[in-house]
Request: fold
Amino acid sequence: MHSAQVPIPENGGFVNQMKRILNSSLRRKIGLASMTLIAAVYVIPRVGSDTTSIQAALLPAVVSAGSQSDATSAGWDLSNIDNSRVDSWVELFTTHPKLKPRFAIWLERKSTYQPMISAKLEERAMPQDLIYLAMIESGFNPKAKSPKAAGGLWQFISETGQRYGLTVNKRVDERNHPDKATDAALSYLSDLYDRFGSWYLAAAAYNTGENRVGRIMREMTGKERGTDQDYYRISSRLPRETRDYVPMMIAAARISKDPQKYGFGTTSVTTTDVTTTDVTMTE
Reply:
């Protein structure tokens, strides 16, 4: 049994930056037509705390599991399940004045790392759409580092990186080596998929810990292995960050597969257009 990635704490770089970026918007009444869900803060609660947040007040207690009508959409090899959380992240990434230029940078960086990641995914017969997990983890920044020491393209903590063959010490940190870090991340994700039988559940476990996901699945379904729909069935039991983790990944995929439809690709955005401390870079 593999121990899990330690969840990034509440003051982690990307999450904290999301909170700062969106904080002003949350003070305003945001109305999205026909949407009751506003996934406007990407908050990670402290373990054992009952801290309330603006996100908790805005998000409904129960979220629809969504339709699986798009689960076999053309051009997808992950399930493209409709859910209001996905819609909310698409809305934020494509309209928010600070998040949209940041997402544009992620799209530009994607072209640098996609050939390498795609080749490794193909070698392992893994879904190509898992590249979007790296997108939401680091924005394709191989030097991304959180204040709590998660690092690299796939945001490994030292312990997990070492368990999957990466050298991490004071002199060498292979988490920042895109090729080696990708090998480690795909091995980890493959192990999680073998345990849970679902890429959505594997992604949730990558984010919040495999033992937590396993325990919740056993309590709610009677077994650990499940389906992608089970991710939404157990969503209410997951930490707030993990409830939005897969929806954010699917939103990133939807936009990236048709960027012009969502207003990207017509104007080049360079790294000088936004802060250089994006995603989980140390502030």
